[in-house]
Amino acid sequence: MNTNSALVLFSGGQDSTTCLAWALARFAQVETVGFGYGQRHHTEMEARVNVLSALRQRFPDWAARLGEDHVLSLDVLKQIGGTALTNAMAIEMGADGLPTTFVPGRNVMFLTAAAALGYRRGITDLVGGMCETDFSGYPDCRDKTIAAVAEALTLALARRVTVHTPLMWIDKAATWSLAEELGGKSLIDLIRDETATCYEGDRTHRHDWGYGCGVCPACDLRAKGYMKYISR
Fold first, then answer.
1. Which ranges of the chain does DSSP label H, i.e. alpha helix?
2. pTM confidence score
């Protein structure tokens, strides 16, 4: 096992890009993993490639630490369906009190697959962008959930699995600030220009905070966070 390596759950969005920068500032070697699960906003899979390429070009010190990128298929989430992220349905509040963008078990599956990949790669430190401060109420983003999954994976793999969640207790404005602390204006520009957060996968409308439809909950959260960030 390499205790100075990390595997970042990397979607190509603002949060996971910030987490990737966080890991690159702390670990000698960093690998990334993304997941194809039949998501409608497939532009994030394209964004992953663009963000990684831009990071290598603009941050040579980080490029030396940035290792292999992996993409794993979790199409079972599409097969299960019933969510606005995998099916053509309205983004709204569901009868269960959760938004229809909630994908049941997604983060648990992501972490399990990442831990299994890490087992083969000799990596026990995982980094994810889960957040309990600015989120849509998803139960699998809560700190207790992540801690429980990490403990279960530790038992299942017979080695300590650590899940780092640098965004867990900060809001979206603080996430922008963290990105600036880690990579300055260059990283802020990269996040605005290259990352994909919009639930609709919109890459045609450009805003001060980046690309997106400007209407969906993800865009709304990102926009409000950016305005709070620049007003500080």
1. 14-24, 43-58, 60-63, 76-80, 106-121, 143-157, 172-194, 217-230
2. 0.95
